[in-house]
Amino acid sequence: MCPIYRYRCNTCREAQEVFRKMADHKDTPACECGGATRQILSLPKVFSDIDPYYDENLESHITSKKHRRRVMAEQGVEEAYGKGWT
């Protein structure tokens, strides 16, 4: 697992995002200008499992797979798979 860490240069003040091993997060990378950097806190980035969409059959805006299953359960709908579907 390689999370994204943010670092800001002490000289030019530019910020950069770097994929690093969790064990290496304290080893700050050098800036492109050659200046020393320090780690800055940033909000975690969350990626949805699907892009939100409007489901005409369910007549609802769906924001995730979990949300879709919940809406289906609330409406008493089950998903049917055809031959060869998984």
Q: What profile does the largest beta sheet have?
A: 3 strands, antiparallel
Q: What is the end-to-end distance?
A: 29 Å
Fraction of residues in helix = 10-25%
The proportion of strand residues reads 15-25%
Structural class category: alpha+beta
Kindly report the average pLDDT value: 83
The H/E string reads EEEEEH
Overview of the structural elements:
With 86 residues, the chain is of the alpha+beta class. The protein has a domain at 4-40. The chain is built from one helix and five strands. The chain has one helix spanning 65-74, and strands at residues 4-9, 15-19, 37-40, 53-55, 60-62. The strands form two sheets. A three-stranded antiparallel sheet has the order 2-1-3, with no helix packed on it. A hairpin with a 4-residue loop joins strand 4 and strand 5 (60-62). The longest helix has 10 residues, at 65-74. The radius of gyration is 22 Å and the shape is elongated. The model has no long low-confidence stretch (mean pLDDT 83).
Briefly, what is this?
The protein has 86 residues and is an alpha+beta fold. It has one helix spanning 65-74, and strands spanning 4-9, 15-19, 37-40, 53-55, 60-62.
Key attributes of the depicted protein:
two-stranded antiparallel sheet, 12% helix
Strands, helices and their partners?
Blueprint: E1 4-9, E2 15-19, E3 37-40, E4 53-55, E5 60-62, H1 65-74
Antiparallel strand pairs: 1-2, 1-3, 4-5
